[in-house]
Specification:
alpha/beta; 21 strands; 29% strand
Length: 488
């Protein structure tokens, strides 16, 4: 049977796609349905049809799955940020484990994967220490803030996200009230006019410090003193800054930061290490799980105080400083200059002198330092962005020949690709541990341990030295040793 757009189909949801969508079949025709849960029987409307598959919109749940739960957030379906909120948490962990395993099998070509149990979350909501809220006007002309609806730039009004901290709402209420009182226009993407683009909020999970950064299509906001006074009434307020972004693009943050009040950073901790975090810093958004993630990376690194470690894509030194507690020396690489300055300050803050940080692309810095300056590594830790590692970097890692490589990944597809490269060149996949950093979403972190492949077996060879038949002359050994003597 041929299916077309707007056709209604009844489906039993038998599987789950990598983006959390339910998968069912109607007469052999596969349909992907957002918001459907494995085990559901649903009615869906076809919104896009290809030859053998299509995409459907969930119209009605005819028979709910035993894994279906009531979403905590009323905007869960509209927003699209929490793709799995209707799925029970134990099944979310199953989904994420299967996602990692599936990518390693299909993309990496691995079998008999040494998977450890996924590390789940204790607190499923209000765990995010950072949020960026776009500001605009709705159809009625009211100033709104919230989150973009899935695959659009239409703002779903929501000042109290179930994943964010309670302080977010207080900050947003204050900023919107100030805009309304003084007639300050939100940014309009279509025209490029208007002033306030986004409100960035960071929260120190352990220190309770609050940072507010207003992203503006201009250099200042009217009545700054009054806004600062209002924001300072919020407990924990520590830093109020302005970020200037006049570019007509979808990029959220500009490069210029101006301090309005307080410090240019807030401080937070992961384990025993304190970090200074600026508006532009990369810092994991779930500090409770980050501590578990880094502890697993440290376990895999297996440091005993004599190792030299390279930490690639080090950010503000979050993993580097964790490793420096146990390593002889740690070198970190990061492309963002401000992040490296943060990393150096964070090393000083924690009294760690066994670190060195480099500004630049990891795929350029590591080959340069290795080939020109002869640096080496006993252990390499890599925590790249979603696109994974550049092949030049992987090539240098193989040449440096560290005993262990610890790969921390936020995208299991590019992880699988990079592991395949490394394991085809002398490394062995020893351990894989998924870590749920982002409950209610489809995202999952993974920590992997690679080490040198073990030999398949041994061959015993008996050699006799000296003069006579079948013996190896000692003067020949001496000549060969001199020929192949390594450089100083």
């Amino acid at each position: 049977m041929e299916f077309r757009k707007n056709d209604l189909v009844t489906l039993e949801i038998e599987d789950c796609g990598i983006d959390g969508e339910g998968i069912g079949k109607a007469d052999g025709f596969t349909v992907f349905v957002k918001d459907a849960v494995i085990g559901d029987t649903v009615t869906a409307k076809i919104i896009k049809a290809k030859k053998n598959y299509g995409y459907g919109r969930l119209m009605e749940v005819l028979k709910p799955s035993p894994y279906r739960v009531e979403p905590k957030c009323e905007f869960a379906r509209q927003c699209g940020g929490c793709q799995l909120q209707a799925l029970s948490y134990d099944q979310q962990l199953v989904f994420k484990t299967n996602k990692v395993k599936g990518h390693l099998e299909r993309i990496g070509g691995f079998t008999d994967i040494p998977m450890e149990p996924i590390i789940g979350m204790d607190e499923l909501f209000h765990y995010r220490n950072k949020a960026q809220f776009p500001v605009g006007r709705n159809k009625e002309g009211k100033i709104v803030t919230g989150f973009y609806a899935g695959r659009t730039h239409n703002i779903i009004e929501n000042r109290d996200c179930a994943l964010g901290v309670a302080e977010n709402k207080e900050v947003l209420d204050c900023v919107i009230a100030h805009m309304e009182k003084y007639g300050i226009e939100p940014y309009n993407e279509a025209t490029g006019k208007g002033l306030v683009r986004h409100v960035l909020i960071r929260y120190g999970y352990f220190t309770k410090e609050v940072m507010v950064c207003l992203i503006l299509n201009g250099n200042k906001i009217p009545k700054e003193e009054q806004l600062v006074k209002s924001l300072c009434e919020i407990p924990g307020m520590t830093s109020i800054t302005i970020n200037v972004n006049k570019k007509h693009s979808n990029v959220i943050l500009g490069e210029e930061i101006r301090l309005l009040w307080g410090q240019e950073y807030i401080t937070d901790r992961i384990g025993d290490i304190s970090y200074q975090i600026s508006p532009l810093s990369f810092y994991q958004v779930n500090p409770m799980q980050t501590q578990k993630l880094y502890a697993k990376a440290l376990e895999y690194a297996d440091l005993h105080g004599e190792e030299t470690v390279w930490d690639l894509y080090c950010g503000i030194g979050t993993i580097s400083l964790f490793l420096a507690q146990k390593a002889k020396f740690v070198r970190g690489v990061e492309i963002v200059p401000a992040a490296i300055e943060n990393a150096k300050e964070n090393a000083k803050l924690n009294g760690l002198e066994n670190t060195e940080f480099f500004v630049g692309k990891a795929e350029e810095v590591l080959p340069r330092e290795y080939k020109k300056n002869g640096v080496y590594a006993d252990v390499i830790v890599v925590d790249p962005p979603r696109k994974g590692c550049d092949e030049t970097l992987l090539e240098t890692m193989v040449e440096m020949n560290p005993e262990r490589i610890v790969y921390v990944s936020c995208d299991s597809a590019t992880l699988a690709r990079d592991l395949k490269y490394l394991c085809e060149r002398g490394y062995e996949l020893r351990k894989v541990c998924p870590v749920d950093q982002f409950g209610m979403t489809v995202h999952v972190e993974t920590v992997v341990l690679l080490s040198h492949k073990k030999p398949d077996g041994h061959i015993n060879v008996k050699v006799e030295f000296g003069k006579g038949e079948g013996k190896v002359p000692l003067d020949n050994i001496a000549k060969r040793a001199e020929t192949y003597k390594p450089k100083e």
